[in-house]
Design brief:
The complex is a heterodimer of chains A (275) and B (254). Chain A is an all-alpha fold and 275 residues long. Chain A contains 14 helices and no strands. Helices cover 81% and strands 0% of the residues of chain A. The longest helix of chain A is centred in the first third of the chain and has 45 residues. Helices cover 80% and strands 0% of the residues of chain B. Chain B contains 11 helices and no strands. In chain B, helix 2 runs parallel beside helix 5, helix 3 packs antiparallel against helix 5 and helix 3 runs antiparallel to helix 7. Classes of the chains: A mainly alpha (275), B mainly alpha (254). At the A-B interface, helix 1 and helix 4 of A face helix 8 and helix 11 of B.
């Protein structure tokens, strides 16, 4: 123990000095913003070669980068929004307390409203998330069987940046490589429902999603109403019947049966209305 | 005196391993590149020679540091010369520190010779800039960190494992900015904390990467150079102290 005393002391001393100098250097060499790194994102072919064909690992790395990129974007958005919000609330609260000015209260509520938040999101999204699509494209080129980036494209890419065509292209690519994943049909239907307003496509894609036993019950329950709303009850009955007959999973069959019964109810209701 | 003898012996031993032969490969590659690149580089010949030269110096230095460094301690055990050393009234720390400085001198001479060839090629090509020396100096510090790590690992691992660990630390050091960006984004979770620990344990070699900035004529502040130099000294000091702690407790069976 005695002969190790000095080396241990030196080790502790050097470690402290090393961490101190490391922190000092970190201050002198600030990190570049994440989107500056994204500017130099090489294409998938190059990355595949450079990684000695460990493309899936590079895709995983880029995926983590994407998550952090989104996290940073969210922080920036929050910071900007909170600043604006803070002024609005602070000022309005002051006015509210002193003069009970209803206009100020209204303006604070307006800034707080979901519509305004959406507007802020869309503004900052377009500005800061410009590298999201190239990232998702590269990840899915490197590992086309990595499903999460496709679903993220439908949700975040479409909502935050308004890149609907790109979003749809990524989902189609995902379906091409992973035709057995219900999520991809579901999110494609979601895009058609909320952004393209194409009910035929919504029904088609939700129906395809419902064909997989892993599909959540909510989507299967939604189908009868979608078919009824689009006046395609008979098509829906045929489709669900074929699903029912071609599946052996009792839980799944029960879910399909419930939806079928609902569709028959809708049909009867329609017939009654016509009479 | 004892320390000086160990340093000199280590230096002589590494020279005997013909590690300086790599200089001929370096000179040959540099000359071929400077002759060939003229027509292919579309006016960027000097830049490419500078980039290539600095990268080659760094790579050759790294290879020597890893493959000679890991064998230094193991050779002593394998040839049983360690018993002769331990039988003498010699403090064990002198063996570790002596080995480090012996190899450090070999590598420094190697780098100096490569630099000389590099400067000559640049003078002939008309693209010599004195600030390139700063890049080479930083590369030397970077390689010395690797030397210290290879000596540390060779005190308790086999040569193969030592090489693996040294190379793993080298790669971890090259991606330290990635680790930093993770824990600066998420410093509250366990993952963020873990990355922070790894960040400080692994050598931050990315901060030594001056070559690109120097070739592009980007300014580098005095404070930055001083801080990085101090960092490399402290890191080497900590690693060598740890190696001494481990080596002091090692039992050598005959």
């Amino acid at each position: 123990m005695k002969k190790s005393g000095m080396p241990i002391l030196l080790f502790v001393l050097f470690s402290i000095l090393m961490i101190g100098s490391s922190r000092f250097t970190d201050r002198l060499q600030p990190l570049e913003q994440d989107w500056q790194h994204m500017l130099y994102l090489p294409n998938a072919d190059f990355l595949r070669i450079a990684s000695f064909n460990n493309a899936a690992t590079v895709a995983d790395y880029l995926w983590i980068k994407t998550v952090l990129y989104l996290g940073r974007y969210h922080d920036i958005y929050e910071a900007h929004y909170q600043t604006g919000h803070h002024h609005g609330t602070g000022e309005s609260a002051h006015i509210h307390a002193s003069t009970h000015d209803s206009v100020a209260t209204d303006s604070a509520a307006f800034i707080d409203s979901p519509a305004m938040k959406k507007l802020f999101y869309s503004f900052y999204g377009k500005k800061y998330l410009v590298h999201l699509y190239p990232l998702l494209e590269t990840i899915t080129d490197l590992d086309p069987y990595f499903v999460k980036p496709y679903t993220l494209s439908a949700f975040i890419l479409a909502r935050e940046t308004g890149q609907l065509r790109e979003s749809l292209a990524l989902l189609n690519k995902g379906i091409h490589y992973n035709p057995e994943r219900w999520e991809l049909y579901y999110w494609k239907g979601f895009l058609y429902l909320f952004y393209f307003d194409d009910m035929d496509q919504v029904i088609e894609n939700f129906s395809k999603a419902a064909a997989y036993p892993q599909c959540p019950q909510g989507i299967i329950n939604m189908l009868p109403y979608l078919y009824a709303g689009a006046d395609k009850i008979d098509i829906g009955i045929n489709y669900l019947q074929s699903l029912y007959e071609n599946n052996e999973d009792p839980v799944f069959r029960k879910q399909i049966l419930n939806s079928l019964q609902e569709l028959y109810e809708q049909k009867k209701k329609k017939q009654r209305n016509q009479k | 005196m004892q320390l000086k003898a160990i340093i000199f012996n280590t230096f002589r031993e590494t020279i005997r391993n013909r590690v300086l032969y790599n200089i001929f490969i370096f000179i040959f590659a540099l000359l071929v590149l400077s002759l060939l690149i003229g027509t292919w580089s579309l006016g960027e010949r000097i830049k490419i020679i500078k980039d290539f030269g600095l990268t080659a110096i760094s790579l050759f230095g790294l290879l020597i540091a890893v493959f000679v460094g890991i064998r230094l301690m193991h050779q002593e055990i394998e040839r049983k010369t360690i018993y002769i050393l331990l039988a003498k009234p010699l403090q064990r720390w002198k063996i570790i520190v002596g080995k480090f400085f012996g190899l450090a001198i070999t590598i420094t001479i190697n780098i100096l010779l490569m630099t000389l060839a590099f400067v000559l090629v640049l003078l002939i090509s008309g693209g010599f800039d004195s600030y390139l020396f700063l890049g080479i100096l930083m590369t030397t510090f970077e390689i010395l960190i690797i030397v210290a790590l290879s000596i540390l690992f060779s005190t308790f691992f086999s040569p193969l494992l030592s090489a693996l660990f040294t190379i793993a630390f080298y790669f971890a050091g090259q991606v330290s900015t990635v680790l930093r960006s993770y824990f600066e984004t998420d410093n509250a979770s366990f993952t963020g904390w873990f990355f922070q620990v790894v960040y400080y344990i692994a050598p931050n070699l990315e901060r030594f990467a001056f070559a690109g900035r120097l070739v592009r004529n980007q300014a580098i502040g005095f404070a930055e150079i001083t801080a990085i130099t101090a960092y490399s000294f402290f890191y080497i000091g900590a690693v060598l102290a740890l190696a001494v702690i481990i080596f002091n407790r090692a039992q050598f069976e005959k």
